[in-house]
Amino acid sequence: MREIVLDTETTGLDPLAGHRVVELGCVELVNMVATGRTFHAYFNPEMIMPAGAQDVHGLSDAYLADKPRFAERVDEFLDFIADAQLVIHNAQFDLGFLNAELARVGKTKLTNSYVDTVSMARKKFPGQRASLDALCERFGIDNSSRTKHGALLDSELLAEVYLELSGGRQRDLGLAPEMAARVIAGVALAAGATIRPARPHAPAAEELAAHTAFLLKLSDPLWLRA
Asked: Are 101 and 20 in contact (CB under 8 A)?
């Protein structure tokens, strides 16, 4: 199952009032494990950055002045997410902004299925705080580098939070290269490539003997009790 954890930074709170996306970050998961593939872009919003928004993400007019317009990277973004399920913290906010940006460049709205991790958190921990920082604290996820909001960093943190909310199947995003190799191998297999057989896992005679010797050293083992 392919999923894309996604976050945006914007010039304000309401796309219908003309506010724009200034940063977009995406992290790919396959079968609940990060593959190491990401999409990240800053955008020139073609408007003055309000001071309140800059205080949140730190992106100034000067920094964004030479960045591409959304239209210049929209196809790359759409190719990256393809038909994957999206994982978003407060999904209606980000989807509202992305769909507004897509409408501006003549693209159709996103039709991907999505998971809202705010709803997941509130269902799992009713009455508790459901912010990204609060969930990182709850699950012991290091967010010390999050001095300001950033779309890619927040997507990476959200990926870990999502995996914890889903049962904690894999918290170490450092295993991404190994997962990516498995994905590539799966694609190659589907294309008819030859994949070497797995190594045999039956224990050798020496291993069985060593195991038996180890068991003899145990006093009062549970499996021998009446």
From this structure: yes
Chain centroid to CA 137: 18
Q: What is the pTM of this model?
A: 0.74
Longest dimension (CA), the chain: 78
Rounded Cα distance between 160 and 141, Å, is: 8
The catalytically annotated residue of 57, 149, 201, 211 is 149
pLDDT in tens, 177-201: 555 555 545 544 544 555 555 556 6
With tokens 């999409």, the residue in question is 39
Given the candidates 3.30.420.10, 2.40.440.10, 3.40.640.10, 3.40.50.300, the CATH classification of the domain at 2-189 is: 3.30.420.10
Which residues are paired to 9 by β-bridges? 23
Residues in the chain: 226
In this structure, what token pair is assigned to residue 74? 């929209």
Domain ranges for the chain: 2-189
Q: Which pLDDT tens digit goes with each residue over 68-96? A: 999 999 999 999 999 999 999 999 999 99
Buried/exposed code over 139-177 (b: 16+ C-beta within 10 A; e: otherwise): eebebeeeeebbbbbbbbbbbbbbbbbeeeebeebeebe
Residue with tokens 């006093």: 219
Radius of gyration of the chain from its Cα atoms, rounded to whole angstroms: 23
Catalytic site residue 149?
yes
With beta carbons less than 8 A apart as the criterion, state whether 5 and 162 touch: yes
